[in-house]
Design a protein that fits this description.
It is built from seven helices and 14 strands. It has 347 residues and is of the alpha/beta class. Helix 2 runs parallel beside helix 3. The protein is globular, with a radius of gyration of 22 Å.
Length: 347
Amino acid sequence: MREQPCYQLPSHLSDLKLKSISPLPHFSNLLNLRVLHVIECPISRLPVTLGLIHLRKLYIIRCECLEEIPGLSLLRSLERLELKGLNRLVEIQGLSELENLQYLLLSSCDLIGQLPNLSKLGKLQHLELEACPNLRPIEGIEGLESWVFCSRGRTILERLLNISRSTWFSHRLPITDVFLSFKGPDTHHSIVSYLHSRMLWKQMSVYSDNDDLRSNEETGEKILQALANSNIYIPIFSRNYASGHWCLRILAHMVKCTSESKGKRRILPVFYDVEIDDVKLKTDLYKSDLDKHQANFNHDETKSWKEALIKVAALRGFVLKNNSYEEVLQSVTEEVYKARKLLDVDS
C-alpha cells in the first residue's frame, strides 16, 4: 500500500527536517525549499514533485523500507545528495540527469549494484562510497577506469575542474578497528584511557564514544557513521551506562550491525563495575533506567534496547570484578588483536 500525504506545510519553508513520520506531507507548494532531510521515515517511496525543483540539498537517512525515489530527475538544481542506510533501495533512477550535482554520498545501501553512467554530471566534484557491498565499478569517471571500490572502508573520489580538462583522484579511508562506548564520568579516566593507549600502542585505530560529550543530533549522526565504519565494538558497562539513552541506542546499533555482518564484526563487552545479571536485566540497576526511558521514547525503541542488553550480556566478555585491571586490559587487547587479524584475512 502506498503512503498518501495528508497535510500541507507552509510554503515559505527553506529548510525542512522530517523524522520518523509517515505519510509524508505534500511537497507541491514548497517552491522555496532548499534543504530537505528525510530521516528514519517508514516509507517505501519518496515521490519528488515539481514543488521541490529548487531544492539544493537532499539527505535521505536510515529509511529502511524505502524502495524507490520516483521523479528524482526533476531536481535539476540539486547540488548535494546523501543516501545513507537505505537497505531496500536497488537503483537510483534519474541520477544521471542531475546536471548541477556536485556532491554525492552513498553509505550502507546494501542492494545497490550499479549506478548510472555519470559522464553527464559535469559539475560533480566529490563522490563518496561506503559500505555498499554489491556496488560494481562506475561508468563515466574518466581516468579512473581501473579503480577498486573497497566495500569495508570508505572510498572517496574527487575531481579537479579547470577550463581544459577534469582530473579524478581517489583515496580510501580505512575502517576503524575498535569502537569504544562508555559513560564518561564512570570510566573515562580509568579503563577507557588505558584501553585506548594499549590499542594505539598495538597500532590499532580506535574511536571513543563518550556519551556525556554528545551535545546534539548532528553529533549523534557522526557517531552512528563511526559505528558503521568499525569492526570491533567494546561497550563498557558501568553503573550509569543505561542512564544514557545514546549509550543504549549505540548498543542496539552494535547488535544490528553485528548480526548483518555475517561474522565480520564482533562485540566484546566489558563489565566494569556491574554484574552480568545487571546487564541481563535480572536486577533493578538497569531496569529502573529503562523504565524512565519508556516515558520519553517509543515502545519499539526501548524494546530494542532491552533486547540488545540481554543479547550482549550473554556474549563472552570480560568481568573486572573477578580480575585485576592488568588482566582485563591484556585479555581485551589480545582478543581485539586476534579478531583484527581474522578480519584482515577474510577481507
